[in-house]
Design goal:
heterodimer; A: 175 residues; B: 0% strand
């Protein structure tokens, strides 16, 4: 009698999609930060994040556990930030940088944030993803190489190129 | 080809500064979690199309709100139910029309005004009004119309009776949750009893059971709460409220 190997595999060894609450607790900050970096205003970020997480909840069963969770979630951030921009939630408003800042330290921080958002907006979509995931959120290059299905060294070059483009954008903004 | 160089110091510093900007209010995120889970409650499991794609309007005209909910994006259903529970008829009709517009004008007009939606229908935490530097908006359970501009809500075709029943169940539930949030667990328990009488086969039995268990715990009636929680796990083995029921 031949037994299907998969049928005898104990259930516990089959990778389950992450439990939503745990995911929410661990990754809320990541997704919200990504939304802000993709141009969502602070005043709107909670609303947009909520919508994004409703979608995450809905699609959680389809998450491939071999995939990078952060990359997968980044896809939601990208999608909802794009919707946000397209539908004009911000009503033509600027980023929050114009808000009166009470101290020099706060101004510096606001400035860092707006510089990053502005420079990110000027690089390609993939470069933006790589900068946010790799350089800002610490997703490793091997993980990203697997995600993008390219050799590791190709991924290194792409990260390098992304940094270069980002730096150019920063410099151009400054002048 | 060499390994990837570490980030240049000035970029490192810029990113570090940028990162310091982010803090999120725990009360707000907790409230959000509940709102998300409630939205998900009304959605089918796992077979929802992504928000960008239109949902084929296959609902037969006799279908009830629940059916609409199953066919629509989860948050929209919640939005409707929430609005039905919390506002007058005129506002509902207006909002439904807005939501139904397949290609709503991408301006503020197509979005429910914040004042309409900002009252959190669920008082998960007693004071969601606490100000937060980075999260100035209370999480509105009714999101602004954006994610599924093409989704079709065939609400007007639905039979109104079950709709209002569900709305009443939900309204009562929110009242109970508010009572619990304001440290009145006995009131919350009374509402659970009212619900059981009024809707012996109600659709939100699971939610009311969660409320009852949480209220028993809040009232320090642990000897009643624990067996009831065990029964809950037995009756709803896959409940998304499993953790909430066990939280002490």
């Amino acid at each position: 009698v031949t037994v299907n190997a998969a049928a005898t595999k104990p259930l516990a060894t089959i990778a389950q999609p992450p439990e939503f609450r745990a995911l929410f607790a661990a990754e809320f900050g990541f997704l919200a930060r990504a939304l802000l970096r993709l141009g969502v205003r602070e005043a709107d970020v909670m609303d947009v994040a909520q919508e994004a997480f409703v979608a995450v909840h809905r699609e959680l069963a389809q998450f491939d556990t071999h995939q990078s969770l952060k990359s997968w979630l980044y896809g939601f951030a990208r999608r909802f930030a794009a919707n946000y921009r397209r539908l004009g939630w911000h009503r033509g408003g600027e980023l929050d940088t114009h808000r009166a800042a009470s101290s020099q330290r706060l101004i510096d921080k606001l400035d860092a944030r707006s510089r990053v958002v502005s420079a990110l907006a000027q690089v390609t979509e993939e470069q933006r993803a790589l900068l946010i995931l790799h350089d800002m959120e610490g997703v490793t290059a091997p993980e990203l190489a697997a995600e993008y299905n390219v050799p590791l060294y190709t991924m290194y070059s792409r990260v390098r190129a992304a940094r270069e483009a980002f730096r150019t954008a920063l410099t151009e903004d400054a002048t | 080809m060499s390994e990837l160089e570490p980030l240049a110091p000035e970029l490192e510093q810029l990113f570090a500064e940028e990162r310091r900007r982010f803090t999120f209010d725990a009360t707000a995120t907790n409230a959000m979690l509940f709102a998300i889970e409630r939205a998900a409650r009304l959605a089918p499991l796992g077979n929802e199309p992504p928000p960008q794609h239109p949902i084929p309007p296959t609902a037969p005209p006799t279908s009830a709100l629940q059916h609409v909910a199953l066919k629509s994006a989860a948050w929209k259903s919640t939005a409707l139910v929430g609005l039905i529970a919390f506002s007058g008829g005129a506002a509902i009709t207006e909002t439904v029309h807005r939501l139904r517009a397949p290609h709503a004008e991408p301006t503020a007009q197509s979005i429910p005004a914040p004042s309409q939606v900002s009252q959190p229908p669920i008082a998960v935490s007693a004071a969601p009004t606490s100000p937060s530097a980075t999260a100035p908006t209370a999480p509105a359970v009714v999101p602004t119309a954006s994610a599924a501009p093409n989704a079709h809500l065939s609400v007007t075709a639905a039979d109104p009776a079950p709709e209002s029943t569900l709305a009443r169940e939900r309204e009562l539930l929110e009242t109970g949750r508010a009572a619990l949030a304001h440290a009145r667990p006995d009131d919350a328990l009374a509402i659970v009893t009212t619900h059981a009488h009024e809707f012996p086969r109600g659709r939100l039995g699971e939610e009311y059971e969660v409320l009852a268990i949480q209220a028993l715990r809040a009232a320090n009636r642990i000897s009643e709460a624990d067996p009831r929680a065990a029964r809950f796990h037995h009756n709803f083995p896959n409940s998304i409220y499993a953790a909430a029921v066990d939280a002490r």
